[in-house]
Design a protein that fits this description.
Shape: globular
Number of strands: 7
Strand content: 5-15%
Number of domains: 3
Helix content: 40-55%
Number of helices: 14
CATH class of the largest domain: Alpha Beta
CATH architecture of the largest domain: Alpha-Beta Complex
Order of helices and strands: HHHHHEEEHHEEHHHEEHHHH
Radius of gyration: 27 Å
């Protein structure tokens, strides 16, 4: 049991929720960690942009001398961290210099703001904000730089623990501002924005209380491994029984279909169907591993004649009300689809309306598929 004071950070909370075994080895036993190439790149880029933020805060512009100073900060940190891949080193420098071209957004209140505060519930939090910008007298923007090769989804932005923690901290450190906008500035792509409602902030604060109390009562018997997408990059995977077991290869047995008897076909189908679930799960693990590896190593994955890379397509969503008011009604009906679930829920208490809707409903069929049922045996 930990009877001392624990300082929560976004990294610490995420690791605790992700894998108790890794948390135990890292934060309790303090085993040494091996920084990845992406980690080294992130530190170097952040250092350069920290210097840039402080310069802009004072002068709101960059001179040639300032740009040289920022470049030197990156170079010195990259050498100190030991970035030995010239392509990655050059890419990091490029990301820094490109970011300097679009620094003029709002008034920078602080750059690399380190904090150590307690919430209203008495939970101690530590961390740092890359940049805090005043957009107007009521609004601040909290910026965190990301060197990831791919951006977050809207759902990930909504549930990101680091952003929720920044929001909570900002509400305490900057109480005079009514609105807090959160930004993950993906230097390889575009910034993404999010916000937290007062209710979400309160719920997250209560969530931290529960996590903090669990951490205080955390013991070695609770340090159970949990297999997840980050296992392949865990510094302790070589001694983790869960990872070692999960890394064993699945075996498939093949046989010519013509050699199966009728009963064997049924058994083989059901067996393969079960194995398919395992293969689908393995494919997801493999895909997540490769995506994470590309992100961690900051490079695409290549064989002799093939290359795997991460691509994300933007999803364009039109506002239904705006479309409805700007296109002819007949054309609008061609554009929209109706959710059966939403209609069913709406008509649940309207039998007359339900009868009219059902009369005009059509029934379509899917492609044929195999179904399974048990055969009742005569006793």
């Amino acid at each position: 049991m930990n009877n001392g004071k624990i300082m929560l950070s976004a990294t610490r909370v995420s690791m605790f929720l992700q894998c108790k075994y890794r948390y135990w080895l890292n934060y309790v036993l303090h085993r040494p960690k091996l920084p990845s190439t992406a980690f080294k790149l992130g530190i170097s880029v952040h250092k350069a942009l920290e210097i840039a933020g402080k310069i802009w805060q004072k002068k709101e512009k960059f001179t040639a001398y300032d740009i040289g100073k920022i470049k030197k900060a990156y170079i010195d940190k990259a050498v100190e961290e030991g970035i030995d891949d010239l392509a990655i080193y050059n890419e990091g420098l490029f990301l820094v210099l490109e970011k300097l071209k679009e620094f003029e957004v709002g008034r920078i209140l602080s750059a690399e703001t380190r904090f150590e505060i307690s919430t209203n519930d008495g939970i101690p939090i530590i961390g740092a904000m890359d940049k805090v910008v005043e957009l107007d007298s009521d609004t601040i923007l909290i910026v965190d730089y990301k060197t990831n090769k791919f951006v977050y989804t809207a759902e990930e932005m909504k549930n990101d623990i680091q952003l929720s923690m920044y929001d909570l901290v900002a509400s305490i450190k900057f109480p005079n501002y009514k609105r807090i906008i959160l930004c993950l500035d993906f230097l390889r792509s575009e910034p993404m924005y999010a916000y937290r409602t007062n209710r979400a902030r309160k719920e997250f604060s209560q969530y931290l209380v529960a996590i903090y109390n669990e951490m205080l009562n955390f013991e070695e018997k609770d340090a159970k491994p949990s297999f997840n997408d980050m296992c392949s990059w865990c510094d302790f995977r070589g001694e983790c029984p869960t990872y070692i077991e999960a890394s064993r290869k699945d075996k498939l047995f093949k046989k010519n279909l013509e050699d199966f008897e009728e009963g064997e076909l049924v058994s083989e189908y059901l067996d393969i169907k079960s194995r398919k679930r395992a293969l689908d799960n393995y494919e997801r693990r493999l895909k997540n591993h490769i995506i994470k590896k590309i992100d961690v190593d900051s490079r695409d994955l290549s064989s002799e004649n093939k290359s795997l890379y991460v691509r994300q397509n933007p999803l364009v969503v039109y506002d239904p009300k705006t479309v409805y008011s700007n296109v002819p009604l007949e054309e609008f009906f061609k554009m929209v689809t109706v959710s059966k679930r939403s209609v069913d829920e709406f008509l649940e208490n309207d039998q007359m309306g339900k009868n009219k809707v059902v009369e005009t409903a059509t029934r379509n069929y899917t492609n044929p598929f195999l179904a399974v049922r048990n055969i009742k045996k005569n006793s």
